[in-house]
Amino acid sequence: MGMESLASQAKPAAVLWLAGFLQAARLHRVVSFCARSRPLSIRIAQCFLLNGFIFLGSLLTLKSAVIPILSWILPEQCDQLQGQRLCDHTGAVATYSLIHSVLVEIFYVFWFYPLYIFSFILSALWYNDIAKHALDVVKGKSLDATQALDGHTISESIDRPEGFDGVAIGIGEQVYSILLLTIFFVEVSVIGYIPYFGKAMNFMLLSLMYAYYCFEYKWNFFAVSLKNRLNFFESNWAFFAGFGSPCVLPIFFFSPLASYGVMAILYPLFVLTATGTQSEKVIDQLKPLHGGKLQRLPVFFIAKRLTAQVLQLFPKAQKEQ
């Protein structure tokens, strides 16, 4: 029974995963969006300049120029020394190696780590601007705006109450969402250390997490309730796992700092492709192909339980006071 159930899920999962991957790969949408919005083009260019030219350029300069020059001036190994007499003094090699390591660490501490923090904060602000400008383009098109939106998005945005109650609900959902995704990120990081299958699970969960981030701008903009977005996401997890895969791939090919730089360049592009993706329509059109039998995967089950436990601490703390 278990094997039959897995076999029945293989086809819809594969079809939806491939569909999500292909939707993410439609980078021509980036050109279309940028052609319609000058502020959007400027923000995309700024992301490339900061994360590509400055951040990755600095890392390339360090690896290809600074470290080789330091290794030539301050050799870390005896066979790199020009004078054989210095090889007889192990203290000289150890001193050179220490000075070399200290200088490289100084470069990281006073340049790369501050640049990383600065890039992370500024990029986060720019990503919001990029999503906003892209959604303005969607709403401003002469075509019917519903062509770029999901059916559930429109219906749910109408259901939310207006005025103070709507604002309060929105703030509460944002707080819950931030806490939920933070806990989920910790969960994903821990799973990556599990022997044998940890890396594969880490890749899949990271793909899901980045896909959620890409679509969250759109869902927030159109006031989709958190309950509905989580339900839609978990019900179509294979599609979103495929969508997030291209953004996560750099992690497995580059060092942590280099992968951050590459992902910081790619991420806003996938935010734009997510903005232009009619996810519900694409998924509905594929149902005849795979039978629509994909079962819901409780991706956020553990994160939801832990989030609920954390939120329960606040009323208790207020009562104790």
UniProtKB/TrEMBL annotation:
Entry's transmembrane regions: 48-74, 110-127, 175-194, 260-277
Which residues fall in a coiled-coil region?
none
User: Cellular location of this protein?
Assistant: Membrane
Q: Name one GO biological process term.
A: macroautophagy
> What Gene Ontology cellular-component terms does the record carry?
endoplasmic reticulum; membrane
Q: Which UniProt keywords apply?
A: Membrane, Transmembrane, Transmembrane helix
Membrane topology, as annotated, equals: Multi-pass membrane protein
The record's listing under PANTHER family reads: ETOPOSIDE-INDUCED PROTEIN 2.4 HOMOLOG (PTHR21389:SF0), P53 INDUCED PROTEIN (PTHR21389)
Q: Please give the name of this protein.
A: Protein EI24 homolog
